[in-house]
Amino acid sequence: MAQQTKQRGMFIVIEGLDRSGKSTQAARLVEHLQKDGIDAKLIKFPDRTTSIGKTIDSYLRSQSDLDDRAIHLLFSANRWELASSIHQWLASGITLICDRYAFSGIAFSAAKGLPYAWCRSPDIALPAPDLTLFLDITPEKAKERGGYGEERYEKEEMQRKVRDVFGRIGSEMSASRESSWVVVDAGETMDEVEQVIWSHIEPVAKTVLGDVGKLWQDIL
Question: What's the number of domains the chain is made of?
Fold first, then answer.
């Protein structure tokens, strides 16, 4: 009798503007999955615990300055630090919920004026998520939430530009069908947003088959 292949875990990314509720919803989703008996793990980018992550953390808190291209490459390197682990966790059946990913790297750097294609290139071939949930909120609405303005990029004009780039990324991802991209209205209550997010999880669970894809593999 042939040995049954163990189904790999789902790779779900939650993206959005600052103060859109990403971290809250990512934590809630992990808890929800675990209650349903699914082995789930939360990962966050930037991972501020690594050597590279500590440099990024200092930059984001405006405690140090770096060239825009240099900090972009550090953000990408921070993701590559975990790429092998992401493959291993998913292959072992663990579902990963990722708070920010390569899409944020592109959005924030392109919003600062760096070329879009250049911003994308360091992350080509990273593990591709099965589903990306973009929590959409206007910068004006985000500004009303607690803690706004504590980090370098939490300024209305910057967030507006970031939102525009996210719109471009979402359109391209949807057109390529490389990975599902869903826009969620993050201006609703936390409970309402959580319900919408959960409604997109079960369909993905039924379609996760084979190896993890690679981001923008058509460019390789």
Answer: 1
The closest alpha carbon to 168, from 181, 184, 156, 158, belongs to 181
Domain-located, residue 159: yes
Residue-wise pLDDT tens for the chain (220 aa)? 344 456 899 999 999 988 899 999 999 999 999 999 999 999 999 999 999 999 999 999 889 999 999 999 999 999 999 999 999 999 999 999 999 999 999 999 999 999 999 999 999 999 999 999 999 988 777 777 656 556 666 688 888 999 999 999 999 998 887 779 999 999 899 999 999 999 999 888 777 878 899 999 887 6
In a domain, 5, yes or no: no
The domain in which residue 141 lies consists of 11-214
Q: How far apart are CA 124 and CA 162, in angstroms?
A: 20
Residue 1 counted as domain residue: no
Distance CA 17, CA 160 (A): 9
Q: What CATH number has the domain bearing residue 175?
A: 3.40.50.300
- Can you read off the two tokens belonging to residue 80? 């590559």
User: What is the Cα–Cα distance from 22 to 27, expressed in whole angstroms?
Assistant: 9
The backbone torsions φ and ψ at residue 99, rounded to the nearest 5 degrees and listed phi first, read -90, 100
Cα separation, 127 vs 93, whole angstroms: 15
DSSP codes joined into one string, 155-219 = -HHHHHHHHHHHHHHHHHHHHHTSSEEEEEETTS-HHHHHHHHHHTHHHHHTT--SS--BTTGGG
